[in-house]
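Need residues for this backbone.
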């Protein structure tokens, strides 16, 4: 196997629309002005993103990858208490169906930056051990920002 480089980059526009979620009496807990209501289209999405990735294959079969993705779209975030501050910057709100208790989910405009670094090491002809690290920064309006870090180790066997 000879060493090689793989470069990829691109631009993407994504749109996803679904039916608005059904009315829920628990939404009345907001008690806000009915003339200033938000959509229940919590999982509607549209985003523009760009990405770039570089991969290098070493002669011994190891592969090193580095990637970046920037997306301008929306983030769905949840809280246990209704928040007028979050409500005012959101594009949709609904009782969060992912939680059994009363949580509220908001669709908030955001910009996301994802960085990733990976190393794949072959351990046999059909298997590898993979190490990965990723950094994610989500910037919303005002102070609604998130930072996530993830380290991973995996064993992959091809059949």
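Answer:
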């Amino acid at each position: 196997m000879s060493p090689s480089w793989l470069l990829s980059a691109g631009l993407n526009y994504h749109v996803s629309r679904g039916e608005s979620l059904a009315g829920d009496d628990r939404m009345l807990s907001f008690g806000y002005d009915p003339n200033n209501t938000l959509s229940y289209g919590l999982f509607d999405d549209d985003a523009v993103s760009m990405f770039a990735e570089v991969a290098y294959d070493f002669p011994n079969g190891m592969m090193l990858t580095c990637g970046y993705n920037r997306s301008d779209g929306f983030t769905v975030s949840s809280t246990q208490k209704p928040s007028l501050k979050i409500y005012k910057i959101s594009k949709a709100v609904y009782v969060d169906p992912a939680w059994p208790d009363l949580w509220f989910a908001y669709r908030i405009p955001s910009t996301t930056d994802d960085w990733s670094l990976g190393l794949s090491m072959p351990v046999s002809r059909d298997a590898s051990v993979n190490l990965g690290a990723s950094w994610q920064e989500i910037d919303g309006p005002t102070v609604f920002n998130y930072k996530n870090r993830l380290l991973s180790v995996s064993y992959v066997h091809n059949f």
